[in-house]
Every structure is written in C-alpha cells, then in structure tokens.
Amino acid sequence: MHLELLELQRRVHARVPLPSLDLGAEAFARHEAHGAPLLQFEHIPLELSDLRLMVRQTVDILRRHGAIEQADAERLQSAGRDLTLLALAGGWFRSAADRTATGRPTPPGGNEAAGDDVLDQVFTLAMRPFLGRCAELVQQREGLGLWTHPYCPACGGDPDFAVVTPAAERHLLCGRCSLQWKFEALTCPFCRNADRSRMTTFATQDGLYRVYACNACHRYLKAYDSRYAARPVLHDVDTLATLPLDAAAIQRGYA
Ligand SMILES: [Zn+2]
Ligand SMILES: [Zn+2]
Questions:
Q1: Which of 128, 136, 174, 198 is the most exposed place for a label (fewest CB within 10 A)?
Q2: Is 177 in contact with 134 (CB distance < 8 Å)?
Q3: CA atoms within 13 A on the CB side of 194
Q4: What spacing in Å lies between the alpha carbon of 83 and ligand 2's midpoint?
C-alpha cells in the first residue's frame, strides 16, 4: 500500500510547477515573530484535475488495502467529483496553516476538515505532491534557520519525523510537506516539555534510528541519525523502515 501511494505521489509531483513566493530572510523574520507559517492556500500550485486524480486514486488504494471503510471511501469519492473539492482542500490546509505562536484560531464558518480523521488522512496523502513542491522552494532559502517554532514554517504542519545532523543538531520533518527545520534536540515538539528527566530516548541496535518519547504528553517522534549513516534522510523510505519502532513505542505506552 505504501509503495503504491509513493508511486502515485511521485508521478503527479513530477508535473507540479514551483510556486512563486516572497521568501527573503526578511519575510522569514516577520513570520517568525508572529509564529505564522509562510504559505497560504492561494500560493499552492494546485491543478484541480490533478487534485481530483490524487484524491480518487488515494482513496482507491486505501480502500483496496482495507485502510478505510467503504462508506468513507464513497463519501470522499463523491466529494472528489464536484466543486467542493477545492473548498475541502482549503479547509484541510488552513486547519494547520492558520496558526500563530499562541495557538490555532477557529476559522469563521467552521471547518469541515477539523475532527474528520479520514478526510485528514486522505488530504495529507493527496496534497503531498503540491505541498512538497512548495517545501522544495522554501528549503533552499536563507533565513529558514530563524524559525524556532515546533510546527512547519512553510505550511504549519506538525513534524512526523526528525533527523540528527552530523553537527548533532535535530531537524524536524513536516508531516504534510516534508520541509526540514532545526529545533532543540531535547524539547518535545508537541507539548514543549524541555525537562530531560521526563524525556525517554531509545535507539535501534545499529544506532541509525532513534525514538524521542515524551513522558509529559506521551507522544513520540522517530529520528534518523545521519551521524551513523552513509546517506541523507529520505522521509518516505525512513518512515517505512521504522515501522517496527512505532510498534516498540506504542508498546511502551506512547502515541
Ligand atoms: Zn510543512
Ligand atoms: Zn510532549
């Protein structure tokens, strides 16, 4: 299932153009001060026919492998056929991107994406080729190092993976767009607990992968330790390679 999803994402990603964005160090500094992510929905190079294809095929793959229920698949397929698709994508995007350092405001008129786990899962996968392109652009810009918040400076997504750099810094990887940004090595990005006695870390035997688990909020984050590796982190490959670590973390009571 994961390989089918990757293949689909790569195929569409190849034809998504780069967006145009104002991304000087000054723009980063301004956004950093408010904790507001840089990207707005209107910036995403989104082609309706490609989005429709991504949603339809993602739902097909998830359903074929039993990852979602038939009723949910039908509900999302019918949304994928009509014009509400862009509105749904916008609502999903803004559920993470409309935030500041002090929290997430409730958007006026409500938000269909909030609390709908299946919709969130499908759009996280279906929007990856488009958001990934935006992240490629942001990643190259100077000023990214100014960002100190625990969510993505580009799209506001939460991290779902990390990498320890050769200089022993920890960089977080966005679960929506794969952007990497530096964050304190021993602070929990989910609840900002920085008390080392309330953090547990454990590694695989070869030292290549590590889990940071927080005993305050009981969430965990996996990391690739590139100090022991011959290649850079590969978000999708390393996420798959560490599925046994998820099992180990869950067994120890983390989520
Ligand atoms: Zn992101
Ligand atoms: Zn925590």
A1: 198
A2: yes
A3: 5
A4: 39
Stretch 238-246: mean pLDDT? 93
For residue 58, what pLDDT is reported?
97
Mean pLDDT of 82-91: 88
Question: What confidence category does residue 110 fall into, taking pLDDT thresholds of 50, 70 and 90?
Answer: very low
Ligand closest to CA 192: 2
Q: Please, which residues bridge with residue 203 across strands?
A: 210
CB distance 55 to 81 below 8 Å: no
Say how far apart CA 44 and CA 227 lie, in whole Å: 34
State the burial class of residue 134 (Cβ atoms within 10 Å of its Cβ: 0-12, 13-18, 19+).
Answer: buried
Is residue 138 within 8 A of residue 189, CB to CB? The reply is: no
Whether residue 111 has pLDDT greater than 90: no
CA of 212 to the centre of ligand 2 (A): 10
Q: What is the number of the ligand closest to the CA of 214?
A: 2
Query: Could you identify the residue written with the tokens 């990207």?
Result: 39
Are 30 and 145 contacting, i.e. CB atoms less than 8 angstroms apart? no
Question: Cα of 216 to ligand 2 centre, how many Å?
Answer: 5
| The pLDDT of residue 236 is above 50 | yes
pLDDT grade, residue 24 (50/70/90)? confident
What's the gap in Å between 184 CA and the centre of ligand 2?
13
